[in-house]
Fold each of these.
Amino acid sequence: MACPVHELAAVEPSCQRTLVSPGAPDEGVTLPPRALGRKDGATTADAIERFEDLGEIDRGGTASVRLMFDRQLKRTVAAKRLRDDLQGNEELMKKLAREVQIAAQLQHPNIVAVHDLAFDARGYPYILMQHVRGSRLDVVLREVHDGQLDDDVLKYLVTLALLVCDAVVYAHDCGIVHGDIKPANILVAGEEQLFVADWGLAMSYRRSPAEPHDVASEHFPFGTPAYMAPEQASGRVDAIDPRTDVYGIGGVLYHMLTGFSPHEATDSSRALELARKGHVRPPGEVAIWKDLPAGLVAVTLKALAPNPGDRHQSVRELRDELRKTCGEHLPPPTWRFTRGNCVVRCHQEVHDLLMLVEGTCLEIATDDTQGYRLRRLNPGTLIGRDALLSPSRAKTTVIAMEDVVVRVVSREEISRELQRCPWLAPLVRGDSSESVI
Ligand SMILES: Nc1ncnc2c1ncn2[C@@H]1O[C@H](COP(=O)(O)OP(=O)(O)O)[C@@H](O)[C@H]1O
Ligand SMILES: [Mg+2]
């Protein structure tokens, strides 16, 4: 069988694990001597032989991302390493190692899949990951803003924003805050396909009060001032939580509506000052487009409230409000998985019911006495039925055997439908014991 069953079924449930986070100098991350750039350390010769460097794809604040051809698996991958001028910086190399550890825990159709951490001939580390063939959202938005805002454009933008929400909701369920949500960290690969990248500033937020914070305060302010939440901009480490990403997604929505970042400024210190104050100009004053949809503007400004208590309290809440506000413009929510990817992982928290629409999957259940039980799932199969009533943990792992499309049915959608059709409720909940025949 083509699927790596033994590997995928044996992995620990990622969402239950305590994750290391960026920032703590040595916490959870030990780099081998070679990773510190020492010429005397052994290098991973296999990796050097295996990957052919095809040139730079793009670069960010600290990293250069290069296209590599994997000679062994005959596919292209993306390799993220520090920019040449920053190579050898021990702190940044450790940050890269922390990034790979966090990103490797996250498996979601809208999150860039991480393959491995490898080392180049000089012993410098780089992250190997899925190569996304697409464009950065900021580049896409530049083109979109050259045209008019009509219903199709609005539908497209909100569909993309909802996919970002899906990815971030999942990360939050795993206890991870992204910390740098902005258009340049979002890769658009098609009409309805998008990946959240760059988990370099991600951190776990479910700490007990006794645990030291895993982000050293001397790293502040970190992130991108043009999109940064006030608590992040002013270095209030303890105040960073999922609502910080609500602000980040608010910034993405603001950029979608106006073509500019929420703290647009000529230099980054001015942007940082605006971010500290949470000063955001009304979208209507900034946008080239006239007649912005009032509902979407209101959702955006709520997400960008300076005080976290005034924002949506979770990305899930923001996503629901977006859907409610722009519902008539939207297609039903679907996720796409490529062959071999995990649709649901055993023990993962499941909030929505999933219906397999296209393609087949393999369900793997582990059983103390019988070992693995495998079942083929065909289109029409419901995945995560228990989520119908309340969030629950998946009991099995489901892997895409080919490219598959899954329709996501939220509990809110189900209760909306049940209100429209009350006689269905007892059937769905399974409490139709009053039946007389
Ligand atoms: N997996 C990928 N596939 C294709 N392009 C990528 C991938 N990851 C990153 N990039 C590109 O490289 C740029 C820099 O990567 P990023 O991880 O954001 O680096 P930094 O941490 O320096 O900001 C991104 O803005 C994006 O354009
Ligand atoms: Mg980046």
Amino acid sequence: MFEDDIKDKVKNSNLFEVVYKKDKFVLNGKEYPIGYTSYIAIQEECRFMDENLFKALLGIYDDLLRDFTKENLDYYHKGIIYVLNSLKDNPMFALLGVENVKDKIARLFSARKKNHYLAINDFKEHGIDLSTAEKADYADEVMHSLNDFLSAMAIGEIIYNSVLEVNGYAALVFQITHRIVERGARNKSQLADAFGEFLSDEYMQFIFRTASQPFKTRATVMPVIENIKGENCIFRKVYYNNLKDFLNTDLFEGYIQGHYLWRCGICDRYFFMTTAHKQLYCSTKNPKYDVPCSYVAKHPEVVKRKMERQNKIDSPYYLLWKKRNDLIRKNKSLGKYDEDRLLIEYVYGICPQCLKNKEKKSIRQASLLLGLTEDGAQKKLKSILKKLKKNLQE
Ligand SMILES: [Zn+2]
């Protein structure tokens, strides 16, 4: 019953829309760097998703198709809610706005709609009763819900397909990334080599069908005009009717931009980078040292001192990183000049700009505030003073 129509609905419903802006994409009003879905996909919640729960939903759906009763319809409705709830903490489905689907589900499965669906099934099986004007009106009203009926039926399979596609994508990203890191691809050309090698690998072609299907999409593309800082720009809005098209597109568009995953040399976790030649270590907090790996890399003493075992919060490195982080956040980017100025201000207790008196700090305190070592701060101070002297003599 209606199987072909439902299949058609599964294939051709626009599930979500994405706007592409240079090296970013916009989804549900939020902007992400192109390629970012690869980072989401390697999160554990995506890489190790259990398909069985979603397969069970298909079983319920089959039961409903075989025996279209109110009981089975309610059960199918419940199954969808349950499955959506289990997906809401999954970062990929959160990105896609699975929370917003709930309203749609509530509308599609209202008591009134469910009665219409049961009536549609009845019409299909026993024909439409048009013997009185009232019955004809009712039939007319019911048939207005046909499109919603098809959507409601399609949604179970759409969810199931989406889960499979996220699983497949996570595996694909993992395999490609493994090769990129293994080959040490640190720039766009090396990345292209590694990606090309992956695509031409026969075994990978067999698993991921990279030779034919993965980068073929069925998306609808529309131009949109948006005003950015007083100037009109043309962007590409793409309507996707399945997840795979969006994810695969995002992956290789990300590669075009030089956005890809790298394995941090310190914590071994994968991180997403947009400037390959600059990033070797991740900037998320390393649980072992309480500071980001990129900080550990610049301050090897962190690793040595860790042997002393301290409380997280008491750790001078944590405080140091936090202060510096807060400072950088405050100033957006702390320029070299600002750092020099602050050092002078802290150590001499006077602001070189406004010449106002400030609280004087020890070299040690000042170095902590600026994220320098004590020794480093001392050297820096010397070089600033030398520079100032030179300026004075000129
Ligand atoms: Zn790391």
Amino acid sequence: MKLLKILLLGLLVLFALVIIGFNVWGAVTLGSLTPDPDAQRDASANRVVMVFGATGSVGDGLLKAAMEDEEVEQIYALTRRMSPRLEQGKASGRVTVIEHQDFTDYSELSATLSSVNTVLWGLGASSIGMDPELYRHIHVDFPIAFVEAWMETSGAAPRAFHYVTGMGTGEGESARWARDKGEAERRVAEMSRGTPLRTFGHRSAWVRPTDENAGVAIYLGEALLKPGHLVIRGIDLGRAMLEISARTDELASGTLIDNRDAIEYAAAYRRYKGIE
Ligand SMILES: NC(=O)c1ccc[n+]([C@@H]2O[C@H](COP(=O)([O-])OP(=O)(O)OC[C@H]3O[C@@H](n4cnc5c(N)ncnc54)[C@H](OP(=O)(O)O)[C@@H]3O)[C@@H](O)[C@H]2O)c1
């Protein structure tokens, strides 16, 4: 019994040390961008928003942010299936749901794509247990096919493409998933050169699910990771994206947004909108 107690205490201490270590690391290394307090905002920069991955944990927060923003006049969600928020958005007329199966083919959608200003891309999957070729197809081929198709349509400007890639992404990393996503970030940025499109890779840490999908364990996790800027609420990630889009002259295409940067832009968004 005593041995068990010692073992449990040891595990607890180890857990605490790991959490403290992560937080110190996050506090020291994250955050390279500071939102300009006097930034010019283009209120029409997010007039038409398209959301990908809305049925997922991240995408649900992105969709919620777009739905709550009064500057967003039209929301399209490209999806294979419905979610409670998509049902709600569809029923209220706030969201136009487009059922879509092949995310490498947008040939039927050029008229819709031509009106889109901002894309919130939360489509993706875990690399754990997934065939590496399929992982690459989803995280490289899908976004590149979309950006190609979008760029072939003229119309709405400005335009911004926000891709949630995740912390640890980078072409120089050892993990294949990280290199694949890093390559996608680079290639869409290269495609945007000399055009009105700006692309952003969001190297988010833990994206906390929306309140509707959060329980005690989620809130506890949030509290534990907050000091090191290692968690962002999904809705705040969406707000950060909308804020970056609206600041049309602030960040160059290809800028990589880490978790702390996104927290800062979400705070700027909330200040501007008067949200607590
Ligand atoms: N969750 C986090 O804390 C976090 C942090 C940093 C980065 N990210 C990244 O964000 C992305 C989304 O993560 P998540 O946690 O939201 O995952 P999730 O809850 O599993 O949601 C994945 C979303 O992507 C869609 N999707 C997946 N495979 C697809 C395919 N082959 N074709 C069409 N749609 C597909 C899913 O649609 P269906 O519902 O139709 O399957 C769903 O909408 C991933 O790339 C992940 O690495 C997540």
